[in-house]
Amino acid sequence: MRMKKSVLMMLLIAALVLGGGISYAVTEWVLVDESKTTPSGITEERYEEMLNELSDSVQLPKVVQAFNQIQSNYIEDITEQQLIEGAISGMLESLGDPYSEYLDVETMEAFNEQIEASFEGIGAEVSMINGVVTIVSPLKDSPAEKAGLRPNDQVVTIEGESTEGLDLLEAVSKIRGEKGTEVKIEVRRQNSDQLIPFTITRDTIPLETVYSDVIEQNDEQLGYIEITNFSETTATRFKEELTTFESKGIDGLIIDVRGNPGGLLDVVQEILREFIPSDRPYMQVEDGNGERERFFSNTEAEKPYPVTVLIDEGSASASEILAVSLKEAIHANIVGQTSFGKGTVQTTLDMGDGSSLKLTILKWLSAEGTSIHEVGVEPTVAVKQPDYYYSSPIVLDETVKVDAVSTNVRFMQEMLKGLGYDIDRTDGYFSSETASTLKAFQDDQGLSVTGDLNQETAERLQGEIIQRIRDGKDDRQKEEAIDITRQQAQTNE
């Protein structure tokens, strides 16, 4: 069987885009953001012309031979489109880069939704890390956050089926769905030796990305801005809140990007230009040849008040650009835990039929040229949250009683302590004193007072803890950021 010319053309162009299209994408990236589509600018007529020019000089790759062999000999029916998309996906997988992927028409529509007003799903940023579908961060007030998903949770099953062998987009399509429907997943968490099940009701995920507050302490007024994602409207909203704060004469500013998985590159650049003067770069990028470009603002001077940035293990990509560049360029304090460690830039290349290639085209670097890829941003002041912030949901096969020893008992003890109960130990041994404390909790909650840990008691504990975390109780990182910013403001007076 002879391959159709149109099919051959698509395979050749796919190879060309992967091999030679990167320089084009780099040029376009200066004008557009990290995630918007960059049209290829190649018409079908130009495809024909390129094919004719190349037919005598380019040795067709093995993929073309494989295409013909499959079409001629494979036992089942298979369409040309399946083979073409499979070939493109295979080329991208061979790069070994979790951030480069093929976006078919359906996936591209979903991808565009995530940088616009809203979408439907559970509200969690996911990535493929060492071949495992991994939660980068749940979004603020999303079903994922309310259910208790955490950064670095590994998604092992979706609706009872293993995620092994799925690519990231296949996993995402199974997790996402219409508002009001449920999805069941199981995750593996670092401090737990068993899979943790979640049943999450999907919802509309609005992308309101900027939240603000004024914190008043000891005659100081501190502006507090939380950024949950860098989407199309984030920089405008951020500058609106900042202008309001500055009109009130704030003494310091705290920018909270904990749990922020990133977003659009030009948006974080716009925010950085508000703070970093023109006499120093606010960030750099490096291409595949090691060539670097530095970026400068038109800002005349630093802000007259101290700036502190809050980060954690769920802060990724654009969040890390913000944190490390402010740290290096204006000596901002960075409070929290080491961030996720994504230091590359992707762009999308239109394939002409509504599908796209998402390719890593650059490394982004800090103001001083530092790469944080797979390393993360180190805080200047490391602060851990209370132990109960990191406790895993308790999953029981049977009721747990006095004298048992397990991680589930330890999680229960940490949760009771976090809720303010007087607990004798948190080492996982179920003592009689622990049982007495558990009875007090059961009584306060209107549960059957047994002193035993059953699933009903475990779920009530978890619900109380999740609500306490969402309410910002015992937020040591934020408290430290307030203290540091306030002290620095007093020093500057």
UniProtKB/TrEMBL annotation:
It comes from the Bacteria. Residues 465-483 have a biased composition (Basic and acidic residues). Residues 112-176 form the PDZ domain. Residues 465-493 are annotated as: Disordered. Pfam families: CtpB_N-like, PDZ_6, Peptidase_S41, PG_binding_1. The keyword 4Fe-4S does not apply. Keywords: Hydrolase, Protease, Serine protease. SUPFAM superfamilies: ClpP/crotonase, PDZ domain-like, PGBD-like. GO terms for molecular function: endopeptidase activity; serine-type peptidase activity. InterPro entries: ClpP/crotonase-like_dom_sf, CtpA/B_N, PDZ, PDZ_6, PDZ_sf, Peptidase_S41A, Peptidoglycan-bd-like, PGBD-like_sf. One of its GO terms (cellular component) is outer membrane-bounded periplasmic space. One of its GO terms (biological process) is proteolysis. Signal peptide: none annotated. Belongs to the peptidase S41A family. This is Carboxyl-terminal processing protease.
